[in-house]
Amino acid sequence: MSEESIFINRELSWLDFNRRVLVLGKDKNVPLAEQLKFLAIYGSNLDEFFMVRVGSLQERANLMRGKKEKRENKTNMTAEEQLAAIMPKTAQLQEDCDKYYAKSLENLAACGYRKVDFDKLSKEDEHFWKKYFQSELFPILSPQIVDSRHPFPFLRNKEIYLGVLLHEKHTSEHTLGIVPISSQMERMHFVRKDNETCFALTEELVLHYAALIFGKENVQEKCLFRVTRNADIDVKEGMMDHDIDYREIMADLLKRRRKLAAVRLQVIPAAPQVAQLLCSRLELTHKRVFVQKSPLDLSFFYKLTSRMESDGHPELFYTPARPMLPPQDYDLAAEVEKHDVLLSYPYQSIRPFIAMLKKAAQDPDVISIKMTLYRMARESQIVQALVEAAENGKEVVALVELRARFDEQNNIDWSKHLEEAGCTVIYGFDDYKVHSKLTLITKKSAHGYSYITQIGTGNYNEKTSELYTDYSFITADLGIGEEASNVFQNLAVQKLTEESEKMLVAPLRFKSVLLDEMDRVINAARLGRPASMVLKNNSISDRDIILKLEEASCAGVRIDMIVRGICCVRAGVPGKTENLHIRSLVGRYLEHGRIYSFYDGVNTRIYIASGDFLTRNTECRVEVGVRVEDPVLKEKLDSILRLQLSDNVNAREMQPDGSYQKVKPAPGEPLVNSQMGMYDLLRDDWTARDKAPAPASVAETPKPQPVKAPEKPAAPAKAAPQPARPAEPEEQPAQPEKAAPAPMPIVVTESRPRRTGLLGRLLERFLK
């Protein structure tokens, strides 16, 4: 591929993203217990990558072998070529993970938590652990022999096994011994000794005493191993028989997922002959074997950090922070009747939204509640509110997406519960996942119908609302309510929404609208106006959007992108994307919200949406978004974007070669932690409008200064949030650190009320 290409391969970009997660596992600015969690997140991310992305590529490569294959539309790589590029990059990541893991053990030991090294046991410890193994573990182990009389067993996805090469007593042949180390066993064992907490892993204990299972003279080679299997199930095949219940199809596919082909083999320590035997049985090449020094599954770190927390070590964790609650008498529905509302998670609580649903369930004027459900909490108050509404005689329509990967069973269970309560449950399209975050509450009065519409960037999930940064827009606007009603009617009859004025509705009215907005900005730049765009999302891979970004850059449009994960466009390519600036934010929270801002030199138009710039979002899913027109909310989104573009604590900036470089403050420049700064930015947000005087027209000022936000959150709390799944940084140690560039302005021209609190003071200062 040409060095001047603006494209980056999707899968390789994802691996770079996971490197940014991994680097947090050794970042000295991250407390030790949180570093351990990031190491665990890195491992679970990689598992999912192999199960889904590598599994899908492998299927495609197998199907197309010997045929002319359709190449990937950005870097022109075949499935085989992508797989060939993925494996060495993964191997390098594993080497880094091993180093970071070893360092974490040193740091843990310094804090009084020591991992048991079974290769260096004292006689006293040897006696203790041998006795423990014989009394507690040996009776429940189920060893197996693989030879001509005993078939090779099915190896479960992601389960850890002991593998042993055995020497036959009366022949020169070797056989394979396998011991499942069941996930049902307690994986960690804690022992207090010499004022230290020692912890041991069950699989390492079994490995150490393998000779007690198979006989010392028989064991020639031993290791622990773990198989990762393809989990990319296909719903279409199951849908061939339309007489079968859709839930039954999904349940059957979930069973099939457990038995799909192996795509990766992890081994510790090196055991060449055992690995060779396993590869021959699993039909894997040696390139899919990863010999590592760190444990095969790092999720045990979650239990360890829970123990550290219960032992009372607050200094090893992030400073506690809880979502901010509104005043006790705050009524979200009443506020929405007066003006649009934008909630920002996890800084503001999801409770007012849940309370609004519960109130609607009791309100005699409410005739229906309609909602799309993609990922729900295990104990979902939101679902319970829908159940209560149905039991009270309201029409409740829930579109449950059963194909939310790895949440399928949870969604199947909730769909049954909703049906039993009398809700109407629909499952969306055969060919499109419904990834929308849309709620519609319909009221009927003497004056006719009225609506409260909620459009969000994140799931209706109480747990992730405290871990992911998301935005929830709630309005009583009649036009938006009517458009949302039309979307639900179309979903019910498997029809795509083709027309909307204020809402974005993928796949027909999402990408086209955003491309039109980009064209508007490009035309402004060509007329000599100071045009700019700020685009915040999780990922970008859509070729049409990437090419439009190139066109905008060449037209002189300043483009700032905040892209957390996959980024298939390269910034700063001479003559192509010189005006494109890309950064990835890394911190305690998962950046999940999507904000799209377009400035044509006169007006700014801002959208929030459930969809990213991935092709699957723009073309293959039903997504929803909305143009935010309330001037106060536009200012809020404007301030959030400026704050994130000023971040010099969590940010890493893409270089022209596609690598990422950590942004650090210039000498004398204050630290700007955008995630923690949000607490102060939103501190008075619940009541700001009540305190503000009547709006007054204010002349536009085109060059506001970047927001400088304090680092520490000021919300009291009892426990630190867990950094759910990827939150990420990435390092390029060979390159010098550089200061954050000053972002281009985001200008809102509508009349603005005066605001109170830090948000108001900052905005007033910008407008002077």
TrEMBL record:
Q: Does the keyword Thylakoid apply?
A: no
Q: Which reaction does it catalyse?
A: [phosphate](n) + ATP = [phosphate](n+1) + ADP
> What GO molecular function annotation could you give as one example from this UniProt entry?
ATP binding
Locate the Polyphosphate kinase C-terminal domain: which residues? 333-494, 504-675
Keyword Ribonucleoprotein assigned to the entry: answer is no
> Which SUPFAM superfamilies does the UniProt entry name for this protein?
Phospholipase D/nuclease, PHP14-like, PPK N-terminal domain-like
The cofactors named for this UniProt entry are: Mg(2+)
Where would I find the Polyphosphate kinase middle domain in this sequence? 125-304
The post-translation modification note in this UniProt entry reads:
An intermediate of this reaction is the autophosphorylated ppk in which a phosphate is covalently linked to a histidine residue through a N-P bond.
What UniProt keywords are attached to this protein's entry?
A: ATP-binding, Kinase, Magnesium, Metal-binding, Nucleotide-binding, Phosphoprotein, Transferase
**Its Enzyme Commission number?**
2.7.4.1
Q: Where is this region: Disordered?
A: 652-672, 691-768
- Gene Ontology CC terms: polyphosphate kinase complex
Where is ATP bound in this sequence? N45, Y468, R564, H592
Outline the extent of the Polyphosphate kinase N-terminal domain. 7-107
The biological process GO terms on file are: polyphosphate biosynthetic process
The positions flagged as active site in the entry are H435 (phosphohistidine intermediate)
Q: What class of enzyme is it?
A: transferase
Record: residues binding Mg(2+): R375, R405
Q: What does this protein do?
A: Catalyzes the reversible transfer of the terminal phosphate of ATP to form a long-chain polyphosphate (polyP).
Assigned protein family: Belongs to the polyphosphate kinase 1 (PPK1) family.
Q: Which PANTHER family match?
A: POLYPHOSPHATE KINASE
Query: What's the protein here called?
Result: Polyphosphate kinase
